Amino acid sequence: MSRPTRPSRFWETLAVVIVKPLSWLLVKKDWRRGERIPRTGGVIIAANHLSWTDPVLLSHFLFNHGRWPVILAKSALFRIPFLGRAVTALLAIPVDRGSREAGRSLSASAQRLRDGAAILFYPEGTCTRDPGLWPMVGKTGAARLALESGAQVIPVAHWGAQELLPYGAKKPRLFPRKTFHVSVGPPVDLSKYAGKPPQGDVLREATADIMAAITEQLAELRGEKAPEIPYDPGGR
């Protein structure tokens, strides 16, 4: 059974009325290559994760470039009064991290892709712990979803959200006004994995390709050279 790829007019309007003015007020915009975001069809938007604020700021960017972002959100949010109703109405997908139910989020994402949605996916699974705030080694969910569905993966890097609200901080740093930089890369070429079972080394290598594409965009935004070996929080 297919699901809509956008919320009802009421919930979409409510979100836009709240998010867009707040986003314009909080940060200046340096948005690059937004034309690379496909306007139709199921697509995986794979991004780095720096701050609790970047899902909102990236959602503004994607909305302004023609796509409603379907976000994977912690399942605990769905149990909070009103907020749970809101994130459900805004088409977010619940994620039960570290549980046996975690696979359900991938199944739900696959269905949304078949319906033609744009899934905003953070392959790292959490805000980066890299000391230099570069993307970490990614988890394999986005690669599995891409290889099993055939959907394009569009790498998106951003920089600046961490200056507004550093990871773990409770209060935003509003002044001076920060700049939210975004750069969109070309679709990640995963063709060499076609016909191969999406498991083991195939998933790890495809994930590394996705993370490398995100990192390449981030290095351009920052004007710096990225580490040759991404940070691995698991110490592998």
TrEMBL record:
GO terms for cellular component: plasma membrane. Keywords: Acyltransferase, Transferase. GO terms for molecular function: 1-acylglycerol-3-phosphate O-acyltransferase activity. GO terms for biological process: phosphatidic acid biosynthetic process. It holds the Pfam family Acyltransferase. Residues 43-161 form the Phospholipid/glycerol acyltransferase domain. PANTHER family: 1-ACYL-SN-GLYCEROL-3-PHOSPHATE ACYLTRANSFERASE, POSSIBLE ACYLTRANSFERASE. This is 1-acyl-sn-glycerol-3-phosphate acyltransferase.
